[in-house]
Amino acid sequence: MELFVHGDYEVVRNPDLCIACRVCERQCANEVHWYDETAGKMKAYSDKCVNCHRCVCLCPTHALKIVKTDDTYKINANWNNATINEVYKQANSGGVLLSSMGNPKPYPVFWDKMLVNASQVTNPPIDPLREPMETKVWLGKRTVKIERDEKGRLKNTLAPQLELSVPVMFSAMSYGSISYNAHESLARAAEELGIYYNTGEGGLHKDFYKYGKNTIVQVASGRFGGFKGYLETAAAIEIKMGQGAKPGIGGHLPGAKINEDVSQTRMIPRGVDAISPAPHHDIYSIEDLRQLVYSLKEATEYKKPVIVKIAAVHNAAAIASGIARSGADIIAIDGFRGGTGAAPTRIRDNVGIPIELALASVDARLREEGIRDDVSIVVGGSIRSSADVVKAIALGADACYIGTAALLALGCPLCRSCHEGKCNWGIATQRPDLVKRLNPDIGYKRLVNLVTAWNHEIQEMMGGMGINSVEALRGNRLMLRGIGLTDTELSVLGIRYAGQSL
Amino acid sequence: MRIDARGMHFSALNEIVRSSADAEIEIDNCIGQRYIACGLSGKKITVNGTPGNALGAYLDGCDVTVRGDVQEATGDTMNAGCICVFGSAGDATGYAMRGGRIFVEGNVGYRCGIHMKAYKENKPAIVIGGKAGSFLGEYQAGGIIVVLGDGAEGSPVGNFCGTGMHGGEMYIRGDALPKTLPPQVKAERLERFPEGEAAQLVRQWCDAFGKESERYLSSPCFRLTPDSANPYKQMYTPN
Questions:
Q1: Could you give the C-alpha distances from A492 to A358, A387, A500, in angstroms and in order?
Q2: How do residues B130-184 score in pLDDT, each as one tens digit?
């Protein structure tokens, strides 16, 4: 017996406006829309609808809208419709529930409970349109030993650095999880913006080696696509220990998604499952991590910063302290709202902690131990706006990773169905007919627009605080006040309550 | 060139090895220096002594000979070349190897050949003269592992051999089937090593260490391959 599970959304078609042009039918990879020849009109299987809004956007007469279904079980605050449906789906199939993109549950968003300061009277604000405002940041170790050569001249002992024109980078999304055109858009935007994009653990497509100086390559537990040329091309190397959307588990790209191009890039045969184990089996300790960090540095002659990326988990501060001592140049922390191309629902929605709390505790811990300058900190896992960036920097971050926001700029409607591989917007799919819907010439410009706009806003907010460089905002928690937070939350965030003066 | 590594830090030693124009390099008195030959290509390197962890990591086409034992993570993510060990090797030998050869005269530790993979002309191989520790070929996705089992009583491999294996093949010499083989791994008993890649690798190993190949080739062995009828697949339900 298979219980029917009603879809979450319903397609509503205005019969007065629909001209039965069948655009919706052609656009929908989920095969929701169909033309009933006998009746001479368009119909829809709403149960297949993922609410990606492709048909709504492309309908020439605006005859379509998608509404949340009002079909309901008996109202129950404990057993709500979604919870009941999940039980039915698992009882029907015996399967692990699989979801995509970031945790959608109504957990508190601490960014929205922090307010930014501004100067009044005693310390003048700065107008970024008329005065210099520095948003350039450098990522890497800032500890240097002063050494002089025999003639007394200073020797350059600075560790390799990444130079960012804006404290924002595109976070790791592999070729395989997203399309060729999405990768091209990210790479070109990173080059134009003077920032970096990240290959994820899927190798680097041969066409994109030319963007190497704006590329961060990832080395994860499956070590896909990693070889000398890959490491050498990149500006930095990221060791992926964990991901905010699925801390503690690995990845599994099913063989069906490994087409010829993905196979070449990952350097694995076509159609064979690509399994990334949960741990790196050569890393069971900080000492082992140090070994991988240094083997990568040796292989690239100490010319590139090494990033270690972890998911935000309960002991993030202690782990980060270990990473800072492992020789890594940069720590990336990914919060529990970070996106993913596919993750078990239960893991995505229940494992990990918010990035705001993880960042505050990591920064505080590294400062307490006097090793904050040994590493830069990059945070991701739902940075949604320039205000989030400003707050993150004030909490102690050097820069932010954006993934979901970047995909939104490319047209992603956040329908959270990437795991189906049928993205109607050409982003999270490998189907050639769908991929070509994303035009990289337009996509990269939209990404450039987004980051440029955020940069203006960051400058405005900094100017308002009377701060003229990102360096002076970093870790400046006096620029933040909490609202609607408990004493414990304030103490973890290391900020005072709104209305409390110094 | 010849380098005396006594008392030398690994970064100094490796800098000399990297920047040397010589195609042949011999390192004497090696005592635990890590990352030797890391990512290198086109050199012939001989190490006398005991190199430290991650010897030949990301190796891209060197010939490395070690007269002594090697420690952990030898040939990690190696791409091409050959590492020949006149002794035994530690844990995680050949982790995520994509190409080239590792020949070990003696035994290897835990997790040898874990996540080995193959792609087109890149097909890695590990040949072990003695025994292998637990988790041999865990997550193996491609390539070939041969265990010759010199000095072993019973099976020359430890527990959980081939856990997560989903590609490639293993040859385990001897009459004893590895304990605790997962159901997704198929074991086929052969009267002798079959001609082809496996036999060729055994001959190359014998040439390297001066052994008589027929003694090994004529023994019965088990060939382990992933059972495609029973693959690793978690059943997912879209949500």
A1: 9, 20, 17
A2: 999 999 999 999 999 999 999 999 999 999 999 989 899 999 999 999 988 998 8
3-state secondary structure of A208: helix
What is the token pair recorded at A295?
């083997």
Complex-level ipTM: 0.93
Question: Binning pLDDT at 50, 70 and 90, where does residue B230 land?
Answer: low
Specify whether the CB–CB gap between A175 and A205 falls below 8 A: yes
Asked if residues A335 and A382 have their Cβ atoms less than 8 Å apart, the reply is: yes
Contact A221 B115 (CB under 8 A): yes
Strand partners, A67: A10
Q: Which of A227, A277, A420 sits opposite B139 (nearest CB)?
A: A277
Kindly tell me the sign of the dihedral angle through the C-alpha atoms of B182, B188, B189, B191: negative
pTM exceeds 0.90 for this model: yes
CA distances from A97 to A161, B62, B234, B235 (A): 41, 47, 11, 9
A77: burial class by Cβ within 10 Å (0-12, 13-18, 19+)? exposed
Buried-exposed string A157-169: b where 16+ CB fall within 10 A, e elsewhere: eebbbbebebbbb
Rg (CA), chain B: 18
**Chain B nearest C-alpha distance from A44 (Å):** 20
A151/A425 Cα distance (integer angstroms): 61
Alpha-carbon separation of residue A164 from A342, A387, B59 (angstroms): 30, 18, 32
Share in percent of chain A as helix, strand, coil (round to 5)? 35, 15, 50
The full set of domains in chain A, from first to last, is: 9-95 (3.30.70.20), 168-249+277-457 (3.20.20.70)
Beta bridge partners of B62: B81
Q: Do B239 and A277 touch (CB under 8 A)?
A: no
Query: Tens digit of pLDDT for each residue in A229-274?
Result: 899 999 999 999 999 999 999 877 777 778 888 888 888 888 777 8
Residue A330 structure tokens: 């940069």
- Dihedrals φ, ψ of B192, to 5°? -150, 170
In chain A, which among 88-107 make CB contacts under 8 A with chain B? 89-90, 92-99
Q: Do B35 and A272 touch (CB under 8 A)?
A: no
Domains assigned to chain B: 2-226 (2.160.20.60)
Q: Do A281 and B92 touch (CB under 8 A)?
A: yes
Helix axes A316-324, A286-299, angle to 10 degrees: 40
